[in-house]
Design brief:
There is one protein chain. The protein has a seven-stranded mixed β-sheet with strand order 3-10-4-9-5-6-7. The chain is 33% helix and 17% strand. It is built from nine helices and ten strands. Helix 7 packs across helix 8. It is an alpha/beta fold. Strand 5, helix 5 and strand 6 form a beta-alpha-beta unit.
């Protein structure tokens, strides 16, 4: 791993992978021109002949307690609460749960139908995935995926609860892709460029899955960094501002011609 000013930065290397960091971004830049993302309608039909194309619904989690604290108690939050254990792996607020109900209605009305749901393994993203999709997709598998976690920063809200605890809280979620019970990512720090590269590795993973219609429940900075990688093909509102709470944006992803 690379050390800068005493802080371990998330660069995947042989040593980093031994410490549990599983995303190798060393060759991610080569993926920048491999795929094209275009804005799409949720009900868009993908023909059987377009197996190399995907319809992906990107969802940001609903409001968490850390979001509410930063908004309602800004000075206290940024002076002390941001790295407090109280904010560790922040769960949804009641407002966040209500936002999920509205997203559920949007999903139902839009005609979106997905084959698989991938979610960042943080409490608020798992809650958002279940509350938003469970009624319309009760039999659709939800897989926890660390590659789409939020940018690793100093905020305790980005820390992950141990997997053994998450399995008890969310028995309907498949955690098999996460190999470490504890949060091996917590001591890492990333900048936006590194998150963008990680997002390309994640997209490449999505494109290899045997599913055409995919939902991803993740985080605002991760999404903004991903969209910036495709600013030549996506509308500017995708990357110029952060996606709203429990908001959904749908794209098609295909190999660049």
């Amino acid at each position: 791993s690379t050390v800068k000013k005493g802080v371990r930065v998330l660069y995947a290397s042989t040593n980093a992978r031994r410490m549990g960091i599983s995303v190798d971004i060393t060759k991610a830049a080569e993926l920048r021109n491999k795929y094209t993302l275009l804005e799409a309608d949720p009900s868009m039909h993908l023909s059987e002949s377009s197996k190399s194309s995907k319809l992906i619904a990107f969802v940001r989690h609903a409001e968490g307690i850390h979001n509410a604290a930063a908004s309602e108690h800004e000075r206290e939050f940024y002076s002390a609460l941001f790295n407090s254990r109280v904010m560790w792996d922040a769960a949804l607020t009641q407002t966040g749960a209500d936002q999920c109900e509205r997203l559920h209605s949007e999903i139902e009305k839009s005609g979106l139908n997905v084959d698989i749901i991938l979610a960042s393994p943080l409490t608020r993203t798992l809650q958002t995935a279940i509350l938003s999709f469970n009624q319309t997709h009760p039999r659709t598998k939800i897989i926890a995926e660390e590659m789409c976690r939020e940018r690793m920063e100093v905020y305790a809200s980005e820390g992950r609860t141990p997997i053994r605890r998450l399995r008890a809280l969310f028995p309907q979620v498949d955690f098999s892709r996460i190999k470490n019970d504890g949060d091996e990512w917590w001591s890492t720090r990333e900048n936006d460029e590194q998150v963008g590269l990680r997002s390309l590795v994640f997209l490449d993973h999505l494109m290899q899955l045997p599913y055409q219609r995919i939902a991803v429940v993740t985080h605002s900075v991760f999404l903004q960094c991903l969209y910036r990688e495709f600013r030549s093909s996506l509308p500017s509102e995708f990357y110029s501002q952060r996606q709203g709470f429990a908001a959904m944006r749908v794209v098609t992803a295909s190999l660049t011609q």
